[in-house]
Specification:
With 803 residues, the chain is of the alpha+beta class. Among the domains are: 1-39 and 256-406, Multidrug efflux transporter AcrB transmembrane domain (Multidrug efflux transporter AcrB transmembrane fold); 120-182 and 533-576, no CATH class; 411-444 and 674-803, Up-down Bundle (Multidrug efflux transporter AcrB transmembrane fold), CATH 1.20.1640.10. Helix content is 61%, strand content 8%. It is built from 32 helices and 13 strands. The strands form four sheets. Strands 9, 10, 11, 12 and 13 form a five-stranded antiparallel β-sheet that branches. The chain has a four-stranded antiparallel β-sheet with strand order 3-6-2-7, sandwiched between helices. The protein has a two-stranded parallel ribbon with strand order 1-8. α6 packs across α23 (540-551), α11 (282-305) runs antiparallel to α16 (373-395) and α29 (705-727) runs parallel beside α31. The chain starts with a helix and ends in a 5-residue tail after the last helix.
């Protein structure tokens, strides 16, 4: 025991030993940074901030958000030039991307007829068409078709019909292309897609990478933009890229940029503030060490514990820790003075400091059980950072500081400030009035208290979401609020169940009660139906006999339709077409978006647009369920599913906060052991939470998950302020030193979160503005409530005759 203090004293007296400790500390940080860099993998998957799905509706929603084909779609809009030039740009970009392995589909509406139907799938047209379901392919059908083709050859359509005629006299390719045309497809100008105004050429791209695979999407989106930039160099043409993948790339880029900018400004602000506060160039350098230790420790912890990727929001949120972690060295610096050993100084501060750290860590530890991966990452990052920063301040920082700096309590400015504060009245009943007013504001403020819109939980800004909705509407994307779902173990069963709904859905469309619908069975009939159509096709000898009969007296040569005979023969013996066979074709996107397969089950979706009476569709689904044994058929309201997901998410977070509050009170109780002292410390924090929520409600803010996270952080800050004011006791000098430390901490924290409140990312803006409000109210209320009442009496006694 005697050797410890001796070594510490020698450390303070010998600059070389202190320099050696600083170098060792920096080397340890460098090593830890290397470990973090090797293990750290960034993720932009927004599903990390969504709870685990519990209901079928929620599971479908989460699957579509992350791995569904919709998450892979990028919508491109080219503008800035005349329509003819834009069409040329569209074709050039299409041709450049079409052969790139990063993309499974690139389409701009320029594919029509044979081009829309891949050559290797042409024989399957006789298994996909319903033209012969009620009228068989016989001599009469062929004769009528050949007569119609003769008329076509004499019409303006001859150029389109003539290439198809030898292999497709009944024009099934065109019939299928027309049947597959989306009801709301964009207009075609100059042979490519344009918006309704004719000012934007449109393309649709499906990436091979999933929508929230940040690396794959960064590569894909970067390729699109670089290719266009090269093609459009020197012109006025502009390219917009929207969709989940583009949002993921944009979020990652903006988060990284803003985090770097905010981190830089915060670091400079900390340095300037410490220089002003302590009039020493050493303090900023020493104060950065615990901060750096905290940040690197947090990164290393999440990198090692979450190998699947750390979300960018977690990293950005980590920069806000500068607003918490910097409190620890600042309190130490403000209380250090000549005649007081740094080790003894930090030992005296440790009860208040450690209580604050433990309480804040407990609050975040509850997120480990929230069922939300993003919150678990935040908890691990925060806990690791706070613990390391506190331990670094306790056991390393005292060995580096100057043991005899000027005493902060001797500052005349601070003494005058302290005397002014002492004249302020102590709030009593006014606190109850404030609490009551805040409660009434929360209860009666106009508007909804909670934001249940799932899109508002994402970092995507409103303008981007609006543009995404506009382009989806231009490209004929369906309204996906109501979706009919057929689930079965076999793909064919799910396809057949939805196909059986077509007569009733067609009747609703004809009656105007439904605008349009879409289903995978439109493009890919079940294998059973394909086999039925296969069996109905004539064999080659029979088909030749039918043709000979149909051609008798015709202007066509006897051997003109040999390609047609060959295609029917291939269709007669071909294995049924599957979704895997559609890869690389325009049909692949349509089918994959409406036919999902996961965990050994197939889900066939029927998208519904312009639905007036959901109950009518629900009744149709219930009736069809009885006709389809082994298939689960129901109508899903995806808006209700998303709202239920948000409500469940919030419920978990609120439950975690309630547990955190109980544990926080228990921690403070164990540390202070006095109901009066515990109440004096907790009251400013609890009242601040109430006031902040009231202010947010009064300005029309609907609360989200991120406001709740910010409130926990604000509570941790307020608890620190109150603990240190209470810890200062009634000694005037100690209260002045504490006042100095908390003023510096408050200014630094206010800078950090005010900058965050100005962020362009809604999530960071919500956190920043909420915590900034909490900092102000926590400081004022802690100053008025948590300081000991005996301080002014102690000062007066010092100024009396015995002074």
């Amino acid at each position: 025991m005697s050797r410890g203090p001796g070594f510490r004293e020698r450390l303070l007296q010998r600059p070389r030993l202190r320099l050696g400790l600083a170098v060792a500390w920096l080397l340890a940080l460098a090593a830890l940074s290397w470990v973090a860099g090797q293990a750290l993998e960034f993720s932009g998957d927004l599903r990390r901030f969504l709870p685990d799905a519990r209901t079928p509706e929620q599971r479908l929603l989460i699957d579509e958000l992350g791995d569904g084909p919709g998450s892979r779609l990028l919508m491109l809009a080219i503008s800035g030039e005349a329509p003819e030039a834009l069409a040329a740009r569209s074709r050039a970009l299409h041709d450049a991307l079409a052969g790139d392995a990063r993309f499974t589909l690139v389409t701009n509406g320029g594919e029509a007829g044979l081009e829309a139907f891949p050559e290797h799938l042409l024989p399957y047209r006789y298994l996909l068409t319903d033209s012969f379901d009620h009228a068989p392919l016989d001599a009469d059908t062929l004769r009528d078709a050949l007569d119609a083709r003769l008329q076509d050859l004499g019409s303006p359509a001859a150029g389109l019909v003539e290439p198809l005629l030898p292999s497709d006299p009944t024009l099934e390719v065109l019939a299928l292309a027309e049947a597959w045309q989306p009801a709301g497809a964009p207009q075609r100008l100059h042979e490519v897609w344009f918006d309704r105004a004719g000012t934007h050429a449109l393309l649709l791209v499906e990436t091979r990478a999933a929508g929230f695979d940040p690396t794959g999407q960064l590569d894909a989106v970067g390729t699109i933009r670089e290719t266009f930039a090269e093609q459009a160099r020197g012109s006025a043409a502009r390219l917009e890229v929207v969709g989940p993948g583009a949002f993921s790339v944009d979020i990652g880029s903006r988060t990284q940029t803003e985090a770097q900018r905010i981190g830089l400004v915060d670091t400079l602000g900390l340095i300037v503030l410490l220089l002003i506060a302590y009039r020493s160039w050493k303090m900023p350098l020493l104060g950065v060490l615990p901060l750096a230790s905290a940040g690197i420790a947090g990164l290393t912890a999440v990198a090692l514990l979450f190998p699947g990727g750390v979300h960018g929001i977690t990293i950005a949120f980590g920069f806000t820790l500068i607003g918490v972690v910097q409190d620890y060295p600042i309190h130490f610096f403000s209380h250090q003075r000549a005649g007081l050993s740094p080790w003894r100084n930090v030992r005296g501060l440790w009860p208040a400091l450690s209580t604050g750290v433990i309480a804040t860590c407990i609050a975040y530890a509850t997120f480990l059980f929230s069922g939300v991966d993003g919150l678990r990452q935040l908890a691990v990052f925060t806990i690791a950072a706070l613990v390391v920063a506190a331990l670094a301040t306790r056991y390393l920082l005292p060995g580096l500081v100057d043991p005899s700096p000027p005493d902060i309590a001797a500052s005349l400015r601070l003494q005058r400030l302290w005397h002014w504060i002492e004249t302020l009245p102590r709030p009593k009943w006014s606190l109850a009035v404030l609490a009551l007013a805040s409660g009434l504001a929360i209860a009666f403020a106009p508007g909804e208290v909670w934001q249940n819109d799932l899109s508002k939980l994402t970092p995507v800004d409103a303008a981007s979401m609006q543009r995404d909705a506009e382009l989806r509407a231009e490209l004929g994307a369906p309204d996906v609020r109501f979706v009919l779902v057929a689930q079965a173990r076999e793909r064919d069963a799910a396809l057949a169940a939805t196909a059986a709904l077509r007569p009733e859905l067609d009747a609703l469309v004809a009656n105007g009660r439904l605008d349009s619908y879409d289903m995978a069975a439109r493009y890919l009939p079940s294998a059973e139906l394909q086999r039925v159509r296969q069996a109905a096709l004539p064999d080659t000898p029979a088909l030749r006999a039918m043709l000979a009969d149909a051609l008798a007296g015709s202007a066509f040569n006897d051997d003109a339709f040999e390609p047609f005979v060959a295609d029917v023969a291939r269709a007669k013996t071909a294995p049924p077409l599957t979704r895997e066979d559609l890869a690389g074709s325009p049909l692949a996107t349509a089918v994959s978006g409406l036919l999902l397969e996961r965990d050994g089950r197939s889900t066939a979706l029927v998208s519904l647009s312009g639905l007036d009476e959901p109950a009518e569709i629900a009744a149709i689904a219930a009736h069809a369920q009885q006709r389809s044994p082994g298939v689960e058929l129901r109508l899903l309201d995806m808006k209700a599913a998303s709202e239920s997901l948000v409500v469940e998410y919030r419920g978990r977070v609120v439950a975690a906060m309630a547990v955190a509050l109980v544990l926080l009170i228990a921690t403070v109780w164990i540390a202070l052991r006095s109901p009066h002292r515990v109440w004096r410390v907790l009251l400013p924090t609890l009242l601040t939470l109430l006031v902040v929520i009231a202010v947010l409600r009064l300005v029309g803010v609907e609360l989200t998950l991120f406001h709740l996270v910010a409130l926990i952080l604000a509570a941790g800050l307020g608890l620190d302020y109150a603990l240190f004011f209470e810890h200062a006791g009634d000694d005037r000098d100690d209260q002045i030193r504490t006042l100095h430390a908390i003023v510096v901490c408050t200014l630094m924290t206010l800078l950090v979160f005010s900058l965050l409140g100005l962020s362009s990312i809604p999530v960071l803006r919500a956190i920043g503005s909420t915590v900034a409000l909490g900092v102000v109210f926590n400081f004022v209320l802690s100053l008025l409530v948590a300081r000991h009442r005996g301080a002014i009496e102690a000062a007066r006694s010092e100024q009396g005759p015995t002074a």
